[in-house]
Amino acid sequence: MSNLTTLSSGSQANGYLLQAVKDQLIIECGVPVKECLGALFYDITNVRAVICTHKHSDHAGYIKQYQTYFDVYSCQEVADKYDGVKPLKPMTKYKFGGFTVTPLKVPHGDAECLSFIIDHADIGRAVFITDAEDYPYSVKGINHLWVEANYSDDIRIEAMLNGAELRAQSQNHMSLERCVSVINRLKSPELQSVVLLHLSQGLSDAEGFKKRIFDECGVHADVAVKGLAVDLDKDEF
Ligand SMILES: [Zn+2]
């Protein structure tokens, strides 16, 4: 059975485990490696690689721990910061066991940040997008779309009018409104799962976000919270 398990998602820590039948891929190094090993039941024989989007500590903070067990791949900026991290060139295909990973650059303030197109025979095509103001690409045939919905403009404006000090954290992140347009641009008849990533603690509303995605995109979305496992098997649909 194939699935995407969320170890953690949000500005505190990010970690995801992508499991095909005989291949596993770890995405992000923002949770202590022990938590990830626990989710793998301490069997790492099928882990093909760890891929990390960018240098911020909620995504890369525990890279050194992961390097004890795995090969870690990330953008050039992270490779320059941590000895032994292998740099990924955007627009290049990488084979990790049964996975083919194609990184594409996304805008995230001053940080170099990658999104990933992930192809696997058991899963089809998945696209992983986080910490991105936008996703300016058209990718065809997506079966699974995992995309940031950090904050809502509506909630942000309301909070501002109520005198809240808006944390700078949501800057350089994807709004729900942008997320809607990205999903509508990328959705296709093959789309099977949508998971919303990295919701802001103060400027989001999980149930409201899911409803808005359903109303405006016509697709059911899950929200990534610790322990969520989304089924990805092709023949289940
Ligand atoms: Zn970031």
Helix content: 10-25%
User: How many strand units?
Assistant: 14
Can you tell me the overall shape? Answer: globular
Order of helices and strands: EEEHEHHEHEEEEEEHHEHEE
Approximately what portion of the residues adopt beta-strand conformation? 25-35%
Radius of gyration over alpha carbons? 17 Å
Average pLDDT taken over every residue:
94
Bound small molecules, by name, code or SMILES, are: zinc ion
Give the end-to-end Cα distance, rounded to a whole number of Å.
13 Å
Give me the side-by-side strand order of the main sheet. Answer: 6-5-4-3-2-1-14
Q: For this structure, what is the CATH class?
A: Alpha Beta
The CATH architecture name reads 4-Layer Sandwich
Largest sheet: 7 strands, mixed
- Show unreliable segments: none
Question: CATH homologous superfamily, by name?
Answer: Ribonuclease Z/Hydroxyacylglutathione hydrolase-like
Fill in the CATH topology: Metallo-beta-lactamase, Chain A
Structural class: alpha/beta
Q: How many H/I helices? A: 7
Number of domains: 1
